Amino acid sequence: MKILVIDDDKMICFALKTIIESESDMEVIDIGHNYDDAISKYEELKPDICLFDIRIGEKTGIDALKDIKISHPDAKIIFLTTFLDQEYIRDSIKYGSSGYILKDDFENICPAIRAANAGQSVFGNKVFDSISILDNQANDKAKDSPDRDKKYSLIKLLSEREIDILELIADGLSNKEIANRLYLSEGTIRNYISSILVKLDLRDRTQLAIYYLKN
Q: pTM surpassing 0.85?
């Protein structure tokens, strides 16, 4: 796998390169330190996976994600950061990142890269807990919103894998049954479902099933 690393801390970049290239199936093909590097190096090198920090100069990694996805919707970008910030997490999911993990979870960096390369969404445990908080906040906000019906136009926000999971939820399958059907772990399925709930501003599996049937 070809990996592009973008972080404004040069020492972090070289540390990540050392960690990643200790794996026989991974190579860091380049490093960069800001938004312009992220855009230009992605266009030039077309990496399999990108590792972006959130803070990369005047613009953010989220800005780079949004702009790369316009021309390359299949780009796989994982955020590796120190910021357990709910707004950043929400936006990373909203704009189609492949994951969000914290730098102190360094031993899971390479497994996360492999999972993202296989088409999975990857979130660290602390990030997953934060997503659950986001779900609750979004649901409270949406209950009495006059614009709730507008969310049914958001199918374009979902990946192909997320649509597969949404379909199986509508068919009444449990997380375990979905995991067995798709050859994924139950934890991965829970992560996907949390991501779908945030993207569609829905509360629970019942609302997901209704959403699918209406669309």
A: no
